[in-house]
Amino acid sequence: MHRGETSAGTAGELMRSRFSAFAVGDESYLLRTWHPATRPERIGFEDGTRWTRLEIVREEDGGPDDDKGVVEFRAHYVTGAEPGELHEVSRFVRRDGGWVYVRGKIIDS
């Protein structure tokens, strides 16, 4: 899906593909799948961080017939020898027939 294609069928599928893009450092895919109103100019990848696992906690709407959706997830990573976790509730909308990431709220774990 990263090689120019951005058409995930659900918000959850887009979340999974965006996690994979973070894991491989695919900035162009992340920017293409980010809503233009909230998209940054660049992605701030952290040196030495390796994303290891994505855990979907819940999905609310975001299906093939929906226009918006929410995905709560925990993204696990390692920086150096230190494990970490990013817990976020992300909002997605359908735009021009495809899903895009709008914004997320980080949940303190």
UniProtKB/TrEMBL annotation:
Its recorded name reads: YchJ family metal-binding protein
Question: Looking at the Swiss-Prot or TrEMBL record, what is one Pfam family this protein matches?
Answer: YchJ_M-like
- InterPro entries registered for this protein in UniProt: NTF2-like_dom_sf, YchJ-like_M
- The UniProt record lists the YchJ-like middle NTF2-like domain at 10-104
Q: Which SUPFAM superfamilies match?
A: NTF2-like (SSF54427)
Q: Which organism is it from?
A: Actinomadura monticuli
